[in-house]
Amino acid sequence: MNRYVRGFVIFCFIVLVRGNWFFPDKVHFELSQVLNKNCGTTPYSDRLKPEDGRIFENPWLVLLRHPEEQESFCQGTLISESHVLTTAICTEAIVPNETIITLGEYKRTTDPDCFEANLCIVPPIIELLAQKKIVHPDFQNDTYENDIAVVTMNERITYTNSIQPICLPLTPIIPSLVQVPTVYNTLWTVEHKVPKQIHMKYIAQNECQQRMRGLILLQEGQICAQYVKPMELSFIGGSGSPLLIEYHSRTFQFGILSIGLPDATNTEPYIYVNISTHIKWIHDTLVDAYNQ
Fold it and tell me: Residue 13's CB: how many other CB atoms inside 10 A?
């Protein structure tokens, strides 16, 4: 008998699972056997995050890099002890059992990271290998539709203060249950050594499509966000990074940075993969992996 159950059914406001009814707040943590276990917690409770991420503030962030290079080519998020969520485009550069996945990173120029000069209590980073990449079967590299993938690491990791999984929305939390949400694209940029927490604004799909200048036709599984204020900041190398929201004292990822259009004014939206649209595929992919 399989240990994990594949698939689940979501209704509008309550969910029936194996004879039990769950309300949305509880659903996120009890509906899945493989997702959202001890997820989305940090020692900080600020309603508005500082632009520079702090130690232990984003323990789910991971970097993907080639063994012969120091800089990463993509980013992702930890969703279980063995799995990383990123874009399908990012996995095109992954070489199984060669590509390095870095976990527990904060300041890229130091290891271990320190609160102060003589206070280095942060665990050192962990580097594992990308053992297997699982790309969404309906990924289209011309339209970026279903630009999502799960990467299996070669070892299970043990959670620490600097390595934790992110929560994923098992029922939609954007935009129906959250009005005027404060969202962040958290990522390492080329110019900065610590993660930047970029305050973003959710853009409705019809408005976003109008601003695409005919360059791309948005699909159902894509959402858009833009800087709250114009910034001189490059998201190059940020593909796979998360769009995050604070929800019921936890951090949830509801988007994955997919593509951005050339924009000299830094005012155009970025396109993200909608996690809610793909949550069943993510869940079933992990169930299949654990049952093998």
Answer: 9
The 3-class secondary structure across 23-92, one letter per residue, is CHHHHHHHCCCCCCCCCCCCCCCCCCCCCECCCCCCCCEEEEECCCCCCCCEEEEECCCCEEEECHHHHC
Domains of the chain, CATH where assigned: 61-165+278-291 (2.40.10.10), 183-275 (2.40.10.10)
Task: Please give the model's pTM, rounded to 2 decimal places.
Answer: 0.87
Question: Residue 102 CB: number of other CB atoms within 10 A?
Answer: 18
Average pLDDT over residues 265-276: 86
In one letter, which amino acid is 225?
A
Structure tokens at 127: 């580097």
Q: CA–CA separation, 278 vs 275, rounded Å?
A: 5
Closest CA relative to residue 205, chosen from 229, 235, 174:
174
- With 0-12 / 13-18 / 19 or more C-beta atoms within 10 angstroms meaning exposed / middle / buried, residue 36 is buried
pLDDT in tens, 92-133: 999 999 999 999 999 877 656 665 555 566 778 999 999 999
User: What H or E segment, with its residue span, contains residue 277?
Assistant: helix 275-291
Q: How far is CA 196 from CA 58, 107, 131, 179, in A?
A: 10, 11, 28, 24
Sign of the alpha-carbon dihedral angle for 181, 244, 240, 87: negative
Question: What letter would DSSP give residue 142?
Answer: T
